[in-house]
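Summary of Year 1 activities. Much of the first year was spent building the evaluation harness for sequence design. The harness presents a backbone, in tokenized form, and records the residue chosen at every position. We chose the following record to illustrate the format because it has been used consistently in internal testing since the harness was completed.
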């Protein structure tokens, strides 16, 4: 069928609609595939060279109040604690380059700075011999459980810094779990509570 100039001009609005719809579909498809693991340039606080994929499950906290923040350590402990952010920063920390591995296939060697879980539990009067598990909970409600033998590994820490700078919100500010023996999805962000349990 021969298309005249006039009939082609009439088709232009329909072509524009189809193209716009196609662009929208591709955008939505891309955003859905990026929902679980979004590659970002961390934020202005993270030194160049230490950007790495940011993984979350849509559980960003609604607000983060540094002044009101407390890390609670409770459960089977003799000295329950509620530590302010400045108290955490004042503790003797460790600096280690540890590998975070994601179930989506990527991994990154990242320099973390924080406080070993075993040391925090010791300050709370907990003996790893008297507990079976430690639950690490985020302010968003997400949590994972570590065995006591995992906690004894000094590579497992509550990180406060990455690349020599405080964590960004995307990377779990003010505190996140670093557990290199676990997949990245278990590296709880926005850590607000550590609970020791025994059977």
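For this record, the design step produced the sequence shown next.
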């Amino acid at each position: 069928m021969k298309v005249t100039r006039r009939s082609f001009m009439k088709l232009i609005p329909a072509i524009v609609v189809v193209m716009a719809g196609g662009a929208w579909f591709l955008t939505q498809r891309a955003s859905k595939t990026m929902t679980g693991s979004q590659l970002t340039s961390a934020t202005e606080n993270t030194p160049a060279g230490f950007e790495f994929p940011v993984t979350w499950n849509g559980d960003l906290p609604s607000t983060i109040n540094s002044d009101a923040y407390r890390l609670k350590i409770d459960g089977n402990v003799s000295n329950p604690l509620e530590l302010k952010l400045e108290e955490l920063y004042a503790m003797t920390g460790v600096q280690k380059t540890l590998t975070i591995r994601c179930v989506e296939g990527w991994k990154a060697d990242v320099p973390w700075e924080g406080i070993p879980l075993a040391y925090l539990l010791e300050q709370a009067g907990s003996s790893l011999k008297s507990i079976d598990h430690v639950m690490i909970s985020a302010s968003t409600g997400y949590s994972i459980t570590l065995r006591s033998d995992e906690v004894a590994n000094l590579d497992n820490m509550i990180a406060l810094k990455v690349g020599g700078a405080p964590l960004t919100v995307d990377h779990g500010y003010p505190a996140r779990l670093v557990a290199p023996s676990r997949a990245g999805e278990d590296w709880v962000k926005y850590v607000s509570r550590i609970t020791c349990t025994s059977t």
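DSSP finds four helices and twelve strands in the chain. Quantitative recovery figures across the full test set are reported in Table 2.
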